[in-house]
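User: My advisor, Dr. K., asked me to get a structural model of this assembly before our group meeting. I'm new to this, so sorry if the format is off. These are the inputs:
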Amino acid sequence: MKDMEKEKWTDDVLDSLTGIRQAEPNPFLLTRIEGRLQAKTGMSKLQVRLAAVGLGILLLSNLWLALSYDSSKLQQANSLTTSYQI
Amino acid sequence: MATHEDLIRQLASGDHQALKHLYAEFGVRVYNTALGMVQNREEAEEITQDVFVEMHRNAGTFKFQSSVATWLYRITVNKSLDVLRHRNRNKRFAFVTSIFQRKSGELNIDAPDFHHPGVALENQENASILFKAIDQLPENQRTAFVLSQVEQLPQKEIATVMNLGEKAVESLLQRAKANLRITLEKFYPDRRKTRN
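Assistant: The format is fine. Below is the predicted structure of the whole assembly, which you can bring to the meeting.
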């Protein structure tokens, strides 16, 4: 009698997954995956654009400085060094 | 309507929408397989993230020799087994340290009861006991049983996922059920005690 009861219980436990439905994951799971992929690919497109703009500004300012350099100032400095024999 | 293979090609070429479509198609299946394997929601979500990150990384080198579903099931099973192996290592470590820290009291290395949210309410108690027994199965038997009973895959697909023949899967399932029966018979007296 006890054995039959035990067997019935074991069968019931083994059958307990019958009709199991799919569990729903966290609704933000896709966002987390996208976040991880974003982090993995390194810089975002916005960051790349900002870096490119920064580099452009740096190059342009250097170019502007080079072009606007007054060569007469250099001559003045040279004449000073010769007159004071530095 | 793009096929799964088309979506993988689109993903490889950097199409962000393809990821959304693939997640809509396989996200729940990946999550449920991982949940059945590791019996923990947080870890199952971590595994799901890992699976999709790996899919994204390897989309360009996928050879289309198996279906996309089989590929994703394989990655999920492997990642779940990695988590279980890591957990078992930690259990062993906890056991060893407990030997040296007897003062701290009882050994508490068993996972808490797992309640699968997809199980009918009247079966929750029995299913929780069954998951405890599944936790004691060897890796291959556990994988076959979870894919068959939780994910409800046909034996043919389980065989493809596990890279085995159909006969081998059938034998694994039989052994898994026999082992579960042995484990459950050991659990039975405990249950009687708690009921009385």
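One thing worth pointing out at the meeting: The interface with chain A takes residues 19-20, 23, 27-29, 31-32, 35, 44-45, 48-49, 52-53, 56-57, 116-120, 123, 126-127, 129-130, 133, 149-150, 152, 177, 180-181, 184-185, 188, 191 of chain B (CB under 8 Å).

User: Perfect, thanks a lot.
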